[in-house]
Amino acid sequence: APAQLFLDGKALPEGFIYGCATSAYQIEGAWNADDKSPSIWDVFLHNKTTNDVTYGSNGDVADDFYHRYPTDIPLFRNALAVQTYDFTIAWTRIMPAGRGALSDKGLAFYRNVIRASNAVGMSNICTLYHWDLPQSLQDEYGGWLSRNIVDDFRAYAKAVFKALGDDCSHWVTMNEPRTFCTEGFGPDPDSAPGVVSTFKEQYTCMHYALLAHAAAVEEFRLGGYKGKIGIKVDGGVSLPLDPSSAADREAAARTMDFEVGRDVAPLYTGDYPPSVLASGALPLKFTAAEKKMLKGSVDFIGLDFYTSQWVTPTKNCTPDSDTYPECTDQFQQDPRTGLDIGRPTASSWNFDAPHATIYGGIKYLAETYNATNILISETGMGVLNETNLPLEQVLEDVDRIAWYRGVLSAMRQALDDGFPLTGFIPWSCIDNFEWTDGYNVRFGLIQVAYDAAGKGSQARHPKLSGAYLKGVLTKGNPINPYNFV
Ligand code: PNW
């Protein structure tokens, strides 16, 4: 059995998960090694001109994890004392044509990752999809904008389960449908596939993503595999700008429905939240059979919750306005006082507001959807340009420790108040390719020696934040004060 875990000196319940997370495109590199085909992220970034993404970098090499996993995986275990390694599978390695034949080399790679984890006493959370769709499916039918994706995702999931189904304690069908659909499509997309479109395409993508999730869960359950299956959803918490205003409170509830409930409600109730249905904005509806398939399609829910915002009703709400169909104005700086919702970080969207975000996110899921198994499946903070600082200063990452102190305190309170929090998985085990911020913004608990363009020795150095988490979670150290080593 895994060793006892703690939070602020108190024993955590048996089965509580403490892991760290990465994703395939962000760490593996080896973009065209062996049988791998190009994903939409490979193509999206290869087609960019140098300045579109920070320093013109991409994930071609990234952390070279494809070759370095034999030493990286034991390092995650030693530096962080995590009991679980949460990784994602590249569809393009396993099924290079998007459907049909499997690659033995692709399967062997992930089998080796699981073996290397098990060999140092870690289990695995395995994710089928973290944004790296085979480009061939994008070219053939527009990827997530077509119902065809549901069948192709089902077949991909079924094949992966057949090969590895019993080898992961937890399966995640996909990472954050909201993010990949709202960043990849819409008026101003900055992520792959970068299709300039409208909110309707964003909602179409999310609709098929939910159905693809449910199809994969159906295959998992039909196969009778041992582990648990769920999904990771993102979205921060929306608070009323003026808590004494009924209109602002209504706007906050509405924004939660549109930004979180829209992905979560179908999993628990079989359909979108009432306010989303009533808006008339949805391009597609679920059939009775689809509702049945969606309802109950998670054993657990992963919250990738980083930050929060204040909202008010918007005065300008037409289908071509930015805020449609939520129709709320959103702020992380109070327009009346100039006060930030929390400490700003290197990511423009990410403010450190742990109580609102972590405690509030867990409470929202538990109270709104009676969720009974909630993981904080990602949270973390980026630091800008760490490579330009002296190494000692990078590794003594007290700002990041402050971030996690807030997160851990909020989790402690959620547990003390009886909410069903069952795991904590910081983002990320190791520095990696931070999408449109390139290598310039680092989220790792372990530093990688490369520059903002991703060039360098690739040496790994554990940061102090990792030692802090290790101390609190596995040695029973207090969350405060700073006597953590
Ligand atoms: C996560 N938000 O996404 C992703 O899963 C990771 O791949 C990524 O590296 C990490 O965040 C850090 O950016 C999110 O705006 C991106 O609330 C943005 C938000 C939430 C999650």
Automatic annotation (TrEMBL):
Keywords from UniProt, A to Z, are: Glycosidase, Hydrolase
> What is the official name of this protein in its record?
Glycoside hydrolase
Which branch of life, at top level? Eukaryota
- Keyword Glycosyltransferase attributed: no
Kindly name one Pfam family recorded for this protein.
Glyco_hydro_1
Gene Ontology biological process: carbohydrate metabolic process
Indicate whether DNA-binding appears among the record's keywords.
no
| Molecular function, one GO term | beta-glucosidase activity
Residues making up the signal peptide according to the UniProt record: none
Assigned protein family: Belongs to the glycosyl hydrolase 1 family.
